[in-house]
Each structure stands twice: as structure tokens, then as C-alpha cells.
Design a protein that fits this description.
heterodimer; A: mainly alpha; Cytochrome Bc1 Complex, Chain D, domain 2; 6 helices; 57% helix; B: mainly alpha; two-stranded antiparallel ribbon; 5 helices; 55% helix; elongated
Chain lengths: 119, 108
């Protein structure tokens, strides 16, 4: 009986940690839904490994924290420090909350990637 | 005379084509990537302001995107002090060479 209660507690703690982790890093499933809603793939490519124009970045597997940063730079816009000016992306990020951006970043990071870190 | 005009027109077009297309040479890049590898060549390397984030993976990225990004830092469309300084020090040919070099990297 005691052992059973202990097991349940451990499972609850593990699940809680997993949930918190997912929360801190962005929710992949919600990110996928948002990417669909805002049609990110219509420019960045169906698998996010090849944009429809070569000047558009590959996003699949990119660091989630960098993707979140990049989205935030567009949100800051072209006149603020650490901002970016881009005719398309500034408009795309306008309706997104911080939570939305973290979720989208987590989703894109989770996809099979061709990006590498080499010298 | 007509033929001469045609020839002149053709050569002008050909020259314009050459001037517009700077071809990136990955073999010329190793001398130019020293500033890149100090951050982008270190696994887990993080920038810390205003967000804390790992600097982006650039190997295997589209060459034209890398050129566009570097030019945006050069022009100031992207505001980031260290990248603005580095991009400003690169010529169009340097940017093309570095972009070609990183775009050709693969997982193997």
C-alpha cells in the first residue's frame, strides 16, 4: 500500500517535471497548430527545410531559443535596439504573444533538420 | 553598323550580368571565417542580450539567406551590435564566400 502510494507520487512528480519542462521550452503541439494557422510553411517550405525563395531561411531544427529571439527581434521592429526590419516578418509576428512565439519555436526546432554546427 | 550596335548592346548586357552576380567561392572562405567561428563554431555558445539564446546554426543554411542576413546586418535592417560590426567589415565578395562556405556544410 505504502509502496503504491510512493509509486504514484513518483509518477506525479515525473509528469509534473515533464509538463514544466514542456512549458518552459514551448509547447510543440500548440506550435504546430499556430504554424498551420499563420501558414508559416507557405514561405518557409512544407518541411521547413527549403523556403520558396532562397533568401528565406531554413527553420527546421534551428535552435528554439534562437528562433524565439528572432521572432522577438521582428516584434521590436526596425527602429529599436536589437530589432529587425523586415517587410514580411514584422507583420507576421504582430498577432503573436510571447507564449505563441515560444511554442512555434519549439515546434520548428523539433523537425528533422539539415542544419549543422561545424567550423 | 547595325551589327556593331548589336554587338555593343550584347556586350553591355553581358557586363551587367557579370557585375550583378558575385559568385561565392567557398575555397576563399577559410581566411574570412575567423570572426564567425568564435561564436557559431562553438556548440552551445549563447548570446545573452536581450534574450539568452544559442547563436543560430548556420551550417547547411541557404547561401542566399545567409547573404541576405549579413547584408541586413550591414545595412542596419537588423540591429545587433556585434553582427553589425562584423558584417560592416565584409565586402560583397566576402559575404558571398562565407555564405557559400557555410551553405555547403552537411551532416556527414
Amino acid at each position: 500500500m505504502k509502496e503504491r502510494a510512493m509509486k504514484k507520487t513518483i509518477i506525479a512528480v515525473v509528469l509534473g517535471v515533464v509538463a514544466m519542462h514542456a512549458n518552459a521550452r514551448g509547447n510543440i503541439a500548440n506550435g504546430e497548430a499556430l504554424a498551420k494557422k499563420y501558414a508559416c510553411a507557405s514561405c518557409h517550405g512544407a518541411d521547413y527545410n527549403k523556403g520558396i525563395d532562397p533568401t528565406y531561411p531554413k527553420l527546421a531544427g534551428q535552435h528554439a531559443d534562437y528562433l524565439l529571439h528572432a521572432l522577438q527581434t521582428y516584434k521590436r521592429g526596425g527602429t529599436k535596439p536589437y530589432g529587425r526590419n523586415n517587410a514580411i516578418m514584422v507583420g507576421m509576428v504582430a498577432p503573436l504573444s510571447d507564449r505563441d512565439m515560444a511554442d512555434i519555436a519549439a515546434y520548428l526546432h523539433s523537425l528533422p533538420s539539415t542544419l549543422v554546427l561545424k567550423r | 553598323m547595325k551589327k556593331l550596335y548589336a554587338l555593343l548592346a550584347l556586350s553591355a548586357v553581358a557586363q551587367a550580368g557579370l557585375a550583378a552576380d558575385i559568385i561565392g567561392n567557398p575555397k576563399a572562405a577559410p581566411a574570412k571565417i575567423e570572426m564567425c567561428i568564435g561564436c557559431h563554431g562553438i556548440p552551445g555558445y549563447k548570446a545573452t542580450f536581450p534574450e539568452v539564446y544559442q547563436v543560430p546554426l548556420i551550417g547547411g543554411q541557404s547561401a542566399k539567406y545567409l547573404e541576405a542576413a549579413l547584408n541586413a546586418y550591414k545595412k542596419g535592417d537588423r540591429k545587433h551590435p556585434s553582427m553589425n560590426g562584423i558584417a560592416a567589415s565584409l565586402s560583397d565578395q566576402d559575404i558571398a564566400d562565407v555564405a557559400a562556405y557555410y551553405s555547403q556544410q552537411t551532416r556527414k
